[in-house]
Specification:
The protein is mainly α. The longest helix is centred in the middle third of the chain and has 21 residues. A hairpin with a 4-residue loop joins strand 1 and strand 2. The protein is built from 7 helices and 2 strands. It has 2 domains: 66 residues, no CATH class; 71 residues, no CATH class.
Length: 171
């Protein structure tokens, strides 16, 4: 037997339903077991796969029919609750805000903007700068855009914010 013959390796894919090893090319083997290994590792992470290392070659990624599959944290939202009244989906809280909170917030915002317009003649430009920069904009940049000295603008904004906090506190 030559050295080259020793180095050649036969590749197979194990078919669990027929309990047979089917010969395949290296590319087919690698593609198949790459995907089944991904699935197995995910299931092992969630403690649903108890496949011993020596039988990893049997893994085909079909975990629900596998003899080494353990029941885990897979729950259906349609599964009935323990008391039988409803299902898990009924128990989930709704994260959408109540319409009355949205309307109240909108009314407060309009009230704050109208008071800002009374206190500062450039209020509409300030509001537009705030809208254009949703992540925030510094007073220094606003003052520069308005052509005002930064320190003067900062003092004015401090007074305006104090006044607006009073309105927000009346809520």
């Amino acid at each position: 037997m030559t050295n080259k013959e020793n180095q050649s390796k036969s590749y197979f894919i194990y078919i669990r339903s027929t309990k047979q090893k089917v010969p395949v090319t290296k590319e087919q083997h690698d593609t198949f077991y790459k995907e089944s290994s991904r699935i197995r590792k995910k299931e092992q992470y969630h403690h649903r796969c108890m496949c011993p290392y020596r039988f990893i070659w049997k893994c085909d990624g079909d975990c629900l029919d596998c003899e080494y599959h353990a029941a885990g944290d897979m729950l259906s939202l349609d599964e009935p609750t323990k008391d039988g009244n409803g299902n898990i989906y009924d128990c989930l809280s709704d994260s959408t805000p109540l319409m009355e909170n949205v309307i109240t917030g909108r009314m407060l915002l309009e009230k704050l903007f109208s008071r800002l317009r009374e206190l500062d003649p450039d209020a509409d430009r300030i509001i537009q700068l705030w809208k254009d920069n949703p992540k925030g904009i510094s007073d220094r940049k606003i003052a520069k855009a308005l052509g005002r000295p930064q320190r003067t603008f900062a003092d004015q904004m401090k007074k305006i914010r104090t006044e607006l906090w009073k309105i927000r506190g009346d809520k």
